[in-house]
Amino acid sequence: MSKKKKKKKNIYLYLDILLVLILLIGIIYIITNNNKESNNENNKNNINNNETEPEPILDSNKEKLEKLGNINKELDFFKMEYLDRYISYKDKHPELDNETIIVYVNIGLDNSFYTNVEDSPNKHTNTVLSNKYYFLGDDYVPKDLVTINNNYSSGDKKMTKDAAKAFEEMARDAKKAGYNVRAVSTYRSYSYQQNLYNNYAKSDGKEKADTYSARPGYSEHQTGLAVDVDNTKVSYTKFGTTKEFGWMKDNCYKYGFILRYTKETEFITGYMNEPWHYRYVGKDIAKYIYEHPMTYEEYYVRFLENK
Ligand SMILES: [Zn+2]
Questions:
Q1: How big is the CA angle at 101 (ends 97 and 103), to the nearest 5 degrees?
Q2: At 13, is the pLDDT very low, low, confident or very high (cuts 50, 70, 90)?
Q3: Which residues are known to be catalytic?
Q4: Are 212 and 272 in contact, with CB atoms under 8 Å apart?
Q5: Are 224 and 145 in contact (CB under 8 A)?
Q6: Which of 25, 58, 109, 228 has a C-alpha 20 to 30 A away from that of 193?
Q7: How far is the CA of 193 from the centre of ligand 1 (A)?
Q8: What is the DSSP string of 155-172?
Q9: Of 27, 28, 24, 4, nearest in space to 16 by CA
Q10: Cβ proximity of 251 and 178 under 8 Å
Q11: pLDDT band at residue 16 under the 50/70/90 scheme
Q12: Could you tell me how far CA 175 lies from the centroid of its own chain?
């Protein structure tokens, strides 16, 4: 064998060894990586526990999140499954910040009223949500309706036990301070609301009626937690012009009530300004909303939904 040939043979041997080494390194790399991945999977499964859907931050979602800019995924009311809805709402409302977009979409405002309707949450509690996206049903009747003390109502008016007690206390304190606050409409059954709405729709047309009257099954009055008031002197529709309205605006939260429908929030609630309509939500929530003005829809999305 010539020296040259021997050298060549040696080079082939080195090349063979190199190839085997590369193969080995490759195999080790693949094995360790697989282990890492399955560990990750295990961790993920541990984190998600019994949840059916795994954490879906996919590459496609990452791009969408970037489109939204500095969206705060840490907000506990952020819903990854609504990402497309957030993006298209932001396209239509570039003036809104991301937190507001999340709240509004979660409320359902990217859909027209009375579309994408769901069953009312928290039924038979003081936090039940009834609006144009949540349906109470035609058979919903509050379990603990009681009649309000007749001194503070026009005829027999019923509310749930908690709400009735709070209303009587409020009306009594108002009277002591020189104000007349009287309940003129409280609990209304499904069929009562059906007649009411149909009559309004007949005389004013559906579109107009929708701005001031709930369709049957959607009225807050059906929860037994809402009350329309007057001052015993002028029609309840003029309550906003009375001194009693001033007292109610500043004091109703102390008894667990909130002013439910204002001019500024018509686009959220779907109802025109109703200075006469109050909703019982309990003292803690009422105080929070008084100190941080927002609709009950916004409060619900921020603090109660998914809790
Ligand atoms: Zn009302």
A1: 120
A2: confident
A3: 274
A4: yes
A5: yes
A6: 109
A7: 11
A8: SS-EEEHHHHHHHHHHHH
A9: 24
A10: no
A11: confident
A12: 36
Q: Cα(167)–Cα(60) distance, rounded to whole angstroms?
A: 52
Distance 245 CA to ligand 1 centre (A): 15
Query: Which tens digits make up the pLDDT trace of 219-232?
Result: 999 999 999 999 99
Neighbours of ion ligand 1 (CB under 5 A): 228, 277
Nearest to 275 by CA among 206, 227, 204: 227
Sequence letter at residue 69: G
Give the whole-number percent of the chain exceeding pLDDT 90.
74
Inform me whether the pLDDT recorded for 103 exceeds 70: yes
Structure tokens at 255: 């008894």
pLDDT above 60 for 44: no
CA of 259 to the centre of ligand 1 (A): 10
DSSP 251-287: HGGGGTEEEEE-GGGHHHHS---EEEEEEE--HHHHH
Residue 119 parent element (H or E): strand 118-119
3-state helix, strand, coil in the chain (%, to 5): 55, 10, 35
